[in-house]
Amino acid sequence: MANPFDLAGRVAVVTGANTGLGQAIAVALAQAGADVALVGRSPMDETAARIAATGRESLAIRADLSRTAPIADIVRRVDDWRGRLDILVNNAGIIRRADALEFTEADWDDVMSTNLKSVFFLAQAAARHMVEHRRGGKIVNVASVLSFQGGIRVASYTSAKSALAGLTRLLANEWASKGINVNAIAPGYFETNNTAALRADRERNAAIVARIPAGHWGKPEELGGAAVFLASAASDYVHGITLPVDGGWLSR
Prior knowledge:
The chain is an alpha/beta fold. The chain contains 8 helices and 7 strands, in the order βαβαβαβαβαβαααβ. It has one domain: NAD(P)-binding Rossmann-like Domain (Rossmann fold, 3-Layer(aba) Sandwich), CATH 3.40.50.720.
């Protein structure tokens, strides 16, 4: 029986691939056999080197996904590079923290533009390519445990990630018949740049770790397996889920 997790011959796009979760996902897809287009605002040399070490190839695309303008060019460049686009991982995201009473319109709009608007329009562009080439494909959105919870001091982030879970279900409903699986991963508390402030706050850090049944913050590489599952044939009959990878956080 063929390995259902094998991604040999597949071409993936991972946004926010320069560091943290995006880097870990990109490397995991490469380890499973995919060539990976890396999309990000800053240099992705480290990610590219780690992918090269797996024997796979990568393409770096510098793009600012706070705007939708780069999206058409991303898909075009991937098509020029490999002639196909099989997997899209919408990982790029930002966060703004402030009490809801003080939250600014700019912090609302910035997060919504990157974490929701660009996610939808990049998924749309990738799906159009998949439909045109009649190969189907996999779209994996990176949601959050705050897709299920409220959180505090992250009004726009919680709103965007909650909406992303709903958008994932809608796209799955519309595109499953076209051979496109749309699912999401909901990371819990991981060691990334976005969580540096929380980990530096001694009281908040202790409270968070005390609630995680696994007893520690997640390491980015611990997200890779879920991404490979949702990007591979192993998930061919999985549509519209938001899969928590959270050390048991939501079970408490």
